[in-house]
Amino acid sequence: MKRLALAPHRLYFFLGALAVLFLFAWWSFSLTVSNASLMQAANSIPLHAIVMPLGIFPLFILGFTFTAGPRWLAVNASDRYFLITGIAYFSGIVLVITGASLAPIMESIGFGMMLCAWLSATWRWAALLGESTITEKQHPTVLLGAMIGGALALSAALAWTLGWSEAWMVARQLTFFCFLLPIFLTVCHRMLPFFTGGVLKPYLVWRPFWLLWFWLSACTTVAVAGVFSWHLLEACAASAMALSFLYTSWRWGLQSSFQNRLLAMLHMSFAWLAVFFALHAATAFGYRLGSASMHALGLGFMATMLVAFVTRVSYGHSGRPLLAGNGIWAIYLCLHLAAMLRVLASILVSPMLITASAIVWLVLVACWVAIILPIYLKPRVDGQAG
Fold this sequence. Notes:
Blueprint: H1 8-36, H2 45-56, H3 58-73, H4 82-101, H5 104-131, H6 138-161, H7 167-199, H8 209-228, H9 231-252, H10 261-270, H11 272-284, H12 292-316, H13 326-348, H14 351-372
Helix pairs in contact: 1-2, 1-3, 1-4, 1-14, 2-7, 3-5, 4-5, 5-6, 6-7, 7-8, 7-10, 8-9, 9-11, 10-12, 11-12, 12-13, 13-14
């Protein structure tokens, strides 16, 4: 276990993998208990919509940010502050889920712990950003802004557990459109063309900053329009985003990425963004699609991108070849099918398909965690430090 303290990504990815398994197991149990009736899990649905994104992704985000981030900023970040931060955030997740069954106040304490841990990490990142003397800080600065959005989302989630019912929608909109999606888009904007250029030859790197600013502005527009029910504005912004991601996927080389499985995994996940925003626009225009768009985002894009990105980073920082074996590749492809199943379940309003999707996701993430988790407990295979 001492190896978890050697580098931020080891601890954060380890705890993140446990959180993924824990949360998917909780939700699958909530759906299947007592004759597998969705209605009997109705009380857990609002919590599910908040705690799943806030529980699954942030630990992995911190692992990547404090591993790659100091290199981006050309600063030293060798302290072990991350041990307390990571353990506190994970403990908060456990308290939130435990409190859902035992005592509501435990939910509030759990979200409070997650908020405090996140504020600590945000403050740390701001300090590193201030120490850096490099001139190009656009990506790190956007990350800081999104991390502040994360603090606001966690604050709204805490307020919701304390009785402010309107805070639920605020928390959901902030979580996806002012926190997680901006971080995913920023990292994709910086890293996806970079990774692609390392594999495909010849390859012209295209990542203009106006594109990133457009994405971030549209995310903010969708978030605000969603909170105030400005559906026409929301639909127009989502439609524009869908078209932009169709073009970007083509421009970044989706069609050529299958020369390398790990690279193809990143591009295939990115392609879900066009699907998500198309579904989101359709919903805003008045089509009854249930939660199809949000599951296209949370499962289709974010969860599959998480598996693709964390696998690549874990292999690279453990000295392993950047190649996806048959097991990882099969799991990853099945995750896409499971995401499609969940989107279809929302469109058809099928409790049976929703439960089946949850169980399939649990099985698949358990297989992935079984492959990836031991990496963080072992030394690098190339003998290097870290």
